[in-house]
Amino acid sequence: ILLYILFLRWEQAIFLFIIFPVIILFMVILGLAAQSKADRQYEGYQRLSNHFVDTLRGLPTLKQLGLSKRYADNVFDVSESYRKETMSTLRIALTSTFALDFFTTLSIAVVAVFLGFDLLDGKVMLLPALTILVLAPEYFLPIRNFANDYHATLNGKNALSAVLEVLNEPEMNQTDELTDFKWQKDATLKFTKMAFTYPNADKPALKDVSVTIQGMKKIGIIGASGSGKSTLINIIGGFLAPDKKGQIEINGQSLPHLNQKAWQRNFLYIPQNPYLFHATLAQNIAFYVDHVTPESINHAARRAGLNEWIKTLPDGLDTMIGEGARTVSGGQAQRIALARAFLDTNRKVLLFDEPTAHLDIETEAALKKDILPVFDNHLVFFATHRLHWISEMDYVLVIDHGQIVEQGTPEELNAKNGRYVKLRSEMGAAEL
């Protein structure tokens, strides 16, 4: 384009030749300045974000102490500062884009002005002038494409870094130590002084965990936030390998961890946010089962309380859901996960990791009616901080700072009048 314009009007060609590196230089200077400013603000952004979350988490305690109204202004100030910092960071992030558009538009305008003067003086014909004016934006197109490609590259780099972090995680071996296993009424799972420490952590997340579970029971796992409930569920599911000290046994067989193929064929995992695949609703429900009939999927969906919602879907069970398709609420996602449990009757171990933590009370109460029937004839591990679930459990593990401080039936723990009773009192006040 530059060479073509040079043959038409050498003055405009020289101007475009000089302005191109100038724009690049300004882009570099503004980019470095914007990055430096954003880095400085990011620390404050993170601090305000953590402050805002901590303030929200502390509201139940403030209400229990009668101080919630006094701290209402504090919540407003923190949220307002959080908003301002967020908008400030976004403004800085858009500075380089604005600079690119500004300088390229200004350069094209300068070319247009001088061409206009030359037209008035009769120094150039209309066709060459219009040709140069049309080609000028195309001359700057590589810079625009470079900016877009650069941001796309950064996004790809960040995504690849996240992927590599997962791929570089050490894989657990010895996954076939447990063979031909099926959980039954006489089966036993035993932890003896089991511990777990996260990488680069100063202290273990779990320590001296000793418990023996036999048969079909409902095991409640309760404790304050950060006490280690989810970590214990992840170890039971084989998602984490415990420290080498301690011992895990199934039916008397010592195992290095529970990432055993035979064990994983025995349980269903229902987390706070069940993953929904980009597939039909029927395929999502039948995720754990290889061969299933439409009638059994319908039956499982009905037992999970999905019938009324399915009637509103355009294609019923054949409606596409998941990423990039129809959105699903938190309560509906939990019911889909529950339908998976109803559909697969061969898996007798259920792992619930605070499945209703992010649901409102009304949705949770409706969901509870459909969850309780699935507990029958299963070994259930139910981690929760909601008080009303505890009365449904046969056995309770009370975790505090990574240790099981109390365990037993709800009646036995009530009689002790210890940490369990205190925690129930705190949980009850928080739910009010």
How does the SSE layout of this entry go?
Elements: H1 2-8, H2 10-57, H3 59-64, H4 72-93, H5 95-121, H6 126-139, H7 141-167, E1 188-196, E2 206-214, E3 218-222, H8 229-236, E4 247-250, E5 253-255, H9 261-264, E6 267-270, E7 279-280, H10 281-285, H11 294-303, H12 307-312, E8 320-321, H13 330-343, E9 349-353, H14 361-371, E10 379-383, E11 395-400, E12 403-408, H15 410-416, H16 419-431
Kindly describe this structure:
This protein has 432 residues and is an alpha/beta fold. It has two domains: 2-167, ABC transporter type 1, transmembrane domain (ABC transporter transmembrane region fold, Up-down Bundle); 188-431, Rossmann fold (3-Layer(aba) Sandwich). The protein contains 16 helices and twelve strands. The chain has helices at residues 2-8, 10-57, 59-64, 72-93, 95-121, 126-139, 141-167, 229-236, 261-264, 281-285, 294-303, 307-312, 330-343, 361-371, 410-416, 419-431; strands at residues 188-196, 206-214, 218-222, 247-250, 253-255, 267-270, 279-280, 320-321, 349-353, 379-383, 395-400, 403-408. The strands form three sheets. The protein has a six-stranded mixed β-sheet, with helices on both faces. It is elongated.
